[in-house]
TrEMBL record:
Domain of life according to the entry: Bacteria
GO MF term set: RNA binding; RNA helicase activity
Protein name: AAA family ATPase
Domain Helicase superfamily 3 single-stranded DNA/RNA virus: 1-59
Listed InterPro entries: Helicase_SF3_ssDNA/RNA_vir (IPR000605)
């Protein structure tokens, strides 16, 4: 379904990027603690994330292209 479609789309983006000499790494996150595994990859796939998984402030930080600010994460 949706997850498999998104993964195929990521592979397509990676293939296109390779044609331009770029490598795009991606991170697939869990629905809870979504940013625990994120480490600066170019593609972030928020798999099965729900609206209440992040605070309103974190959603705004994530979706605002002009805001460069850390998002909440737990640390291992």
């Amino acid at each position: 379904g949706k997850t498999q479609f998104a993964k195929r789309l990521i592979k397509l983006f990676q293939k296109i990027a390779l044609n331009y000499g770029q490598i795009l790494d991606y991170c697939v996150t869990a629905s809870t603690n979504a940013f625990d595994e994120y480490n600066g990859q170019e593609i972030l796939f928020l798999d099965d994330i729900k609206g209440d998984s992040l605070s309103i402030s974190d959603w705004l930080k994530l979706l605002d292209p002009y805001m460069i600010s850390p998002i909440s994460a737990r640390y291992h």
